[in-house]
Structures are given as C-alpha cells and as structure tokens.
Amino acid sequence: MAVFTTQGARENIRVKDGKRVFYLADGDHLTPSAAEWLKENDVQILPAKEAVVREYRTLDGGFVRKKPEHMTHLRADVLVRKDHPRIRFRGMIDALEAKLLLAAKEAQPQLRKQLDEILQAVRTLIRCDVMEQPVQIHTVCGLNEQELRQRSHYPQKFYDQPHFMPSADDSRMLLLLNEVRTMIRQTELAAYDAFHDRDGAVTREDILRLLNRLSSMLWILMIQMKKEEQHGS
Fold this sequence. Notes:
Elements: E1 3-4, H1 6-11, E2 14-16, E3 19-24, E4 29-30, H2 32-40, E5 44-47, E6 56-58, E7 63-64, E8 71-75, E9 78-81, H3 85-106, H4 109-130, E10 139-140, E11 143-144, H5 145-153, H6 155-159, H7 172-194, H8 205-231
Parallel strand pairs: 1-4, 3-5, 6-9
Antiparallel strand pairs: 2-3, 6-7, 8-9, 10-11
Helix pairs in contact: 3-4, 3-7, 4-8, 5-8, 7-8
C-alpha cells in the first residue's frame, strides 16, 4: 500500500488522450492535500489497471519496462533522471507553491486574494510544461505586462513610495512577501536551465515571462505594504 503526497502525485501524472490523469492502484491512497491538488488542476483519477504503458522511453533512445527509482516521468511514456533540468524546475514550482501558501495563511483578506491568484498562476506552469501548452495568462491581479513593468519600475510615481531595501525591522508579512519574490527569481533561473537550447536560445519564453511578471507583482505588493506600514494609508 502506498500513500501519495502532493509531490508524489505530481511526479506520477500521466497523459491519456491529451488529458492529464493519475493512476491509483487498489489499496493505495492520496493525502487530502494531494487529492485537492489533483482536483484543482483537473487531473482525473483512474484505476491503475487502465494504465496501458508497457515500456518507457528514455532520452538516449533506450527503453525500460520498469521505472527505476532514480528516474521519473518527463511525459507519460518518457523517463528521465530526477536531476533533469525540467524535473528540477518542477521541484522549484513545488517549493514556490509552499512559500505562497505560508504567506497567504498569514495575509489579510485582500492580500490573501491576490496571493491566491498568484498561486493559481504558478500552478498553471506545471500543466503548461507537462502538456507542452502555451501560457495563456495575460494579467496578474488585474495588471497587464506593461502596467506591471511601469508600476514595479516607478513606484514613487504610482504609489508615492520609493524603492527600498527590506530589513529586519520590516513586518513579518512584508518579509514573507520578499521570501516569495526571491523564490520566484530562483524558479525563473531554474526555468531558464530547463528551457533553452544548445545555443542558449529560450524555448519557453512564455514560462519565463510569466515568472518575471509574478516577481514584479510581488515587488508591487511589497511597495504597497511598505507605504501602509510607514504612513498608515
């Protein structure tokens, strides 16, 4: 009997008829958070007996009949080592989600709503990677790409609050936002490692663009909070 956590469920997503599925064997169980994640991401749970893959391909052109412990699924029938750049990227997404959840847990209702929207945007990245679909998110918390750029670059103009360096004197909530922002930056670097060709050209610019926009949104949230805490407005 196996118990699948959210991470375990994510690592065992398959694709069937163009849709993401999760095969659950008799006697195996999902943790409540794993079941919720599958539901939120429209992943259908199917009995393991419906899995029809008889062998897996590897990127070097080989085949294996049983998945080794040091390998995981890049796609339904393709296995890679667990240190493959795209698997590292998916791990960073998982860590970023964890940071966002902790920040949202302590946030006031309006901020929590914004962090929840950012969380949903982050969660789409796994689907876009696994399904090799384009990112279709054009606004973050009501702001388009140009608005995010302008407001994050010129906060004095839009929020009457200049750029600042976070310090230990700032509130816990502001520092949690900063932690999320830095995690987004690390995820963006992992995305570049995962999605560039031999010449360094980016193959998934849409994924990197969304992460960059999310980082800008976190900085805007920090600017707004800094002003509120300094001026009470």
